[in-house]
């Protein structure tokens, strides 16, 4: 019975794999069983697992034995530092009572798991550029989304300010209409100012030069009438009013 590898060094949390090879010679049809032993600090060996010739696999929480006759694969799962020690295989044959054959010893050394500092960046595996491409595309999409949201917000704000300005102007015009009863067409047009003007003229009364009045006769009261016609009043704009004043 032989076992290999002779020495195995692994960190905590991993899995150790050993192989035991048996040779039965001409008694290949004999029944047997393979035991797995652990020996710590050269103390008495302790049996940890067992598998028979006709059983394909046996598994516990800590060990897994797989039958590949004439080779048996032994796995030690979820390694801890207290799993360090010497291991060997023991072959027990049933055609000869109490016949046990032991293999040589293999040494297992379990080291502490490497500690990663918070500042240490994990090493990127080579040959996986797709992860970088995905991250870059995701960043571009996020940036584009932020730009679209900013543009949409700006347009909405501008549109609402325009509506509020129009609503304020409309309310001002409606208030003037209700108070003065005047319909305003456009706020930009100058207001129409009506100024009453008076044109002055000379009114002359003519007498009949040939009518003689006796010297001593009482004068007769005489009334004459005149018609005064004023020109039609026209709306005076600020320009005409200024000219009129000049």
Automatic annotation (TrEMBL):
<dbReference type="GO" id="GO:0070234">
    <property type="term" value="P:positive regulation of T cell apoptotic process"/>
</dbReference>
<feature type="transmembrane region" description="Helical">
    <location>
        <begin position="135"/>
        <end position="155"/>
    </location>
</feature>
<keyword id="KW-1133">Transmembrane helix</keyword>
<keyword id="KW-0812">Transmembrane</keyword>
<protein>
    <submittedName>
        <fullName>PDCD1 protein</fullName>
    </submittedName>
</protein>
<dbReference type="GO" id="GO:0050777">
    <property type="term" value="P:negative regulation of immune response"/>
</dbReference>
<feature type="domain" description="Ig-like">
    <location>
        <begin position="1"/>
        <end position="89"/>
    </location>
</feature>
<dbReference type="InterPro" id="IPR013106">
    <property type="entry name" value="Ig_V-set"/>
</dbReference>
<dbReference type="InterPro" id="IPR042379">
    <property type="entry name" value="PDCD1"/>
</dbReference>
<dbReference type="InterPro" id="IPR013783">
    <property type="entry name" value="Ig-like_fold"/>
</dbReference>
<dbReference type="GO" id="GO:0009897">
    <property type="term" value="C:external side of plasma membrane"/>
</dbReference>
<dbReference type="Pfam" id="PF07686">
    <property type="entry name" value="V-set"/>
</dbReference>
<dbReference type="InterPro" id="IPR003599">
    <property type="entry name" value="Ig_sub"/>
</dbReference>
<dbReference type="InterPro" id="IPR007110">
    <property type="entry name" value="Ig-like_dom"/>
</dbReference>
<keyword id="KW-0472">Membrane</keyword>
<dbReference type="InterPro" id="IPR036179">
    <property type="entry name" value="Ig-like_dom_sf"/>
</dbReference>
């Amino acid at each position: 019975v032989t076992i290999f590898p002779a020495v195995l060094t692994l960190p905590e949390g991993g899995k150790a794999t050993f192989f035991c090879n048996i040779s039965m010679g001409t008694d290949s049809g004999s029944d047997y069983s393979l035991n797995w032993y652990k020996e710590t600090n050269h103390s008495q060996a302790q049996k940890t697992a067992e598998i028979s010739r006709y059983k394909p696999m046996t598994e516990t929480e800590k060990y897994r034995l797989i039958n590949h006759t004439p080779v048996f694969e032994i796995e030690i799962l979820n390694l801890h530092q207290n799993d360090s020690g010497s291991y060997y295989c023991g072959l027990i044959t049933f055609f000869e009572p109490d016949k046990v054959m032991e293999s040589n010893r293999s040494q297992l050394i379990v080291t502490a798991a490497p500690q990663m500092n918070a500042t240490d960046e994990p090493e990127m595996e080579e040959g996986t550029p797709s992860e970088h491409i995905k991250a870059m595309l995701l960043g571009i999409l996020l940036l584009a989304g932020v730009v679209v949201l900013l543009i949409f917000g700006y347009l909405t704000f501008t549109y609402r300010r325009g509506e509020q300005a129009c609503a304020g102007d409309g309310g001002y015009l409606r208030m003037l209409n209700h108070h003065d009863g005047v319909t305003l067409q456009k706020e930009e047009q100058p207001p129409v100012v009506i100024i009453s003007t008076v044109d002055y003229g000379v009114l002359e009364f003519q007498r009949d030069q040939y009518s003689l009045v006796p010297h001593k006769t009482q004068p007769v009261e005489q009334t004459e009438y005149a018609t005064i016609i004023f020109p039609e009043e026209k709306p005076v704009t600020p320009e005409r009013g200024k000219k009129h004043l000049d």
